[in-house]
Design brief:
Blueprint: H1 2-5, H2 9-16, H3 32-40, E1 47-49, H4 53-62, E2 68-74, H5 77-89, E3 94-101, H6 108-111, H7 115-120, E4 130-134, E5 140-142, E6 156-160, E7 162-164, E8 176-180, E9 182-184, E10 190-192, H8 194-197, H9 199-202, E11 208-212, E12 233-237, H10 249-258, E13 266-270, H11 276-282, E14 289-292, E15 297-302, E16 308-313, H12 317-326, E17 334-337, H13 344-355, E18 363-367, E19 384-385, E20 391-401, H14 404-413, E21 415-416, E22 425-432, H15 435-444, E23 448-452
Parallel strand pairs: 1-2, 2-3, 3-4, 4-6, 5-7, 6-8, 8-11, 11-12, 12-13, 13-16, 14-17, 17-18, 18-20, 19-21, 20-22, 22-23
Antiparallel strand pairs: 9-10, 14-15, 15-16
Helix pairs in contact: 2-3, 4-5, 10-11, 11-12, 12-13
Length: 466
C-alpha cells in the first residue's frame, strides 16, 4: 500500500479514468490515495456511459460543477420517468447528451407515455453542444420549444421519432443534423417531418445533413423544401423498406436540383436509385479522381473549379457502364483502389476505365497488407493496362516489408505496364524495401523508386512527388 500512496497524482487519476465511473466505488479500499481521488476528483465522473439509473444522481453529484457528457440507453420502462427527471435536473451542466429508448418490451401505458421525454427536451440547456435522441417511437409531436428555446452552444443534433413544430430558437446555431426524415403511419404512408420540410427556416446555419427513412427525394426536397444556403455536405440513405419503387435517378436529381443541392462540396448516397450516379456526375464540369477506398462504394472527386466529393454505396451495375458512356471521366488523373474488388461489374468497370482511349490515368494508388501482399487480389484476367501512367503509389501499415516477387506478382495480376509510353515512378508509403530490390526494379520496370516513411491516406486526391 505504501507504494500506491507514493504514486504521482496524475498517474493515479489516469489509471482510474479507465474504470467505469459506476465501478469506482469498489476500488476505494485499495489505498487512501485511490479513495481520495475516487471521492474528490470530479473529472472521473464527467463522462457517463450507460450507468445504472438508480446510481445516476450520485455520479452526477460527484462531477460537481464540471460540464458532463451522458450516454444512456433505456430498455426498462421502470427507469423511464426517473431517467428523464434526473437528466432534466442536470441539463444546465450537460454538454453532450445521447439518449435512446428501446420500448420493444414495454407495456401499453409506458409505450405511449411521451411526457417524460418531452419534459426533458423542454429544459433549457445553456452548455449543450451535442444532442442525440432516439425516442423509440415512430412519431412524437413535440408541442413546445425544444430545450426551452435556449441552447446557445448547440451545434450537432440527431433526432429519431420526434417532430418539431414552429421555428426553434435552440436550433439557430446547429451546423450538423442527422436523423429520420419521415415517419410511417398505420396505413404505411410516409410523412416528412415538419423540420425536414422546412430546413432553411429551422436550421439557418446548417453545414451538413444526413437523412434516412424517406420514400423519395421529392418527398423531402424540392422548390418548396429548399436547403439553407450554408449547406455544403449531405448523406442520403435509401432504405429498401421505405423507398418508393417509382423513384428513379432522374426524379431524385430533379428534387435535389430544385432544392438547391447540386453544388454540394460532399455528397454520399447509400443504395442510390438507378441512373442517379451517372446523372449526378454529368452535372459536374469534370471528374478528377476515382477512388475505391471503402467496401461496396465508389468515390468521385473534382478539383477544378472547386473541390467536391461524391460517394455512392451499392450503386447499380448498369450505372458503371453509363458512367463510362457519359465521357465525364475523360479528365481523370488518379485512380485509387484501397480494397479487394468483390463484384464482377466492378472488375469490368476498371477494365473499361483503363482501356478507354480517351482516359489517360496518370496516378494509381493501391493498398498493401501488413504481410506485403498488394491488393486487390483479383485474377490476372482482369489486369489493367496503362498507357500514360506516371506514378504508381503503394501504401501499407508503417514498417510493412515488400519483396521483389510481391511487386512482380502485382504486375502479373493487376497492372500491365507494357503499353505504357514510359517507365513510371514507384512511390512506397510506409513500406520498407531492400536496396537490391530497388536496383532491380529501376533496371527493368520503373524509372525511379521513392520510399516515404508515412502511410498514405487513401482519401487524398493527389499524391504528387514532384
Amino acid at each position: 500500500m505504501a507504494v500506491l500512496s507514493e504514486l504521482p497524482a496524475e498517474l493515479v487519476s489516469e489509471t482510474l479514468s479507465y474504470i467505469p465511473p459506476q465501478d469506482l466505488r469498489h476500488y476505494r479500499l485499495v489505498s487512501r490515495t485511490f479513495d481520495a481521488h475516487i471521492q474528490g476528483n470530479p473529472r472521473l465522473y464527467s463522462i457517463l456511459h450507460n450507468v445504472p439509473v438508480d446510481y445516476l444522481t450520485r455520479l452526477l453529484n460527484l462531477s460537481r460543477e464540471l460540464e458532463i457528457s451522458v450516454t444512456m440507453e433505456c430498455k426498462d420502462e421502470n427507469d423511464y420517468d426517473v431517467l428523464c427527471f434526473v437528466l432534466a435536473s442536470y441539463m444546465s451542466r450537460i454538454r453532450s447528451l445521447t439518449l435512446a429508448f428501446d420500448r420493444t418490451k414495454w407495456g401499453p401505458a409506458a409505450l405511449n407515455n411521451v411526457v417524460p421525454i418531452t419534459d426533458l427536451l423542454s429544459t433549457s440547456a445553456p452548455v449543450l453542444r451535442r444532442l442525440r435522441v432516439d425516442t423509440g417511437l415512430f412519431y412524437i409531436n413535440f408541442p413546445d420549444q425544444l430545450l426551452d428555446g435556449h441552447a446557445p452552444r448547440l451545434e450537432r443534433l440527431h433526432l429519431v421519432g420526434l417532430e418539431l413544430n414552429g421555428v426553434q430558437p435552440a436550433l439557430a446555431r446547429v451546423q450538423y443534423f442527422t436523423g429520420q426524415a419521415a415517419w410511417m403511419d398505420t396505413d404505411d404512408k410516409m410523412h416528412a417531418f415538419t423540420h425536414i420540410q422546412n430546413r432553411a427556416q429551422y436550421f439557418p446555419a446548417l453545414l451538413t445533413i444526413g437523412l434516412d427513412e424517406f420514400s423519395t427525394a421529392a418527398s423531402i426536397f424540392g422548390a418548396n423544401n429548399r436547403c439553407p444556403s450554408s449547406l455544403n455536405a449531405m448523406e442520403l440513405v435509401y432504405e429498401p423498406e421505405y423507398t418508393d419503387q417509382s423513384e428513379t435517378g432522374q426524379t431524385a436529381l430533379t428534387a435535389l436540383y430544385d432544392a438547391g443541392c447540386t453544388r454540394l462540396k460532399r455528397l454520399a448516397v447509400y443504395n442510390p436509385p438507378q441512373e442517379l450516379v451517372p446523372l449526378f456526375l454529368q452535372s459536374c464540369e469534370k471528374i478528377d479522381a476515382v477512388l475505391l477506398e471503402k467496401d461496396d462504394s465508389v468515390t468521385f472527386t473534382t478539383v477544378e473549379p472547386s473541390s467536391r466529393t461524391f460517394q455512392f454505396y451499392n450503386a447499380h451495375a448498369k450505372d458503371f457502364e453509363q458512367i463510362l458512356d457519359t465521357g465525364i471521366l475523360g479528365h481523370i488523373e488518379l485512380l485509387v483502389i484501397g480494397r479487394q474488388i468483390e463484384y464482377e461489374h466492378e472488375y469490368h468497370f476498371f477494365e473499361e476505365l483503363t482501356t478507354a482511349p480517351d482516359i489517360k490515368i496518370k496516378q494509381l494508388a493501391l493498398a498493401v497488407e501488413d504481410n506485403g501482399a498488394v491488393l486487390p487480389t483479383w485474377p490476372s484476367r482482369h489486369r489493367m493496362p496503362f498507357t500514360e501512367l506516371q506514378e504508381l503509389h503503394l501504401t501499407g501499415p508503417r514498417g510493412t516489408a515488400i519483396s521483389h516477387w510481391q511487386l512482380y506478382d502485382l504486375l502479373r495480376r493487376v497492372v500491365d505496364l507494357s503499353p505504357n509510353r514510359w517507365r513510371p515512378t514507384l512511390v512506397l508509403h510506409g513500406i520498407n524495401i531492400l536496396e537490391s530490390t530497388i536496383k532491380m526494379l529501376t533496371t527493368s520496370v520503373f524509372h525511379a523508386v521513392m520510399v516515404l516513411p508515412l502511410p498514405l491516406l487513401m482519401s487524398e486526391r493527389r499524391f504528387s512527388v514532384q
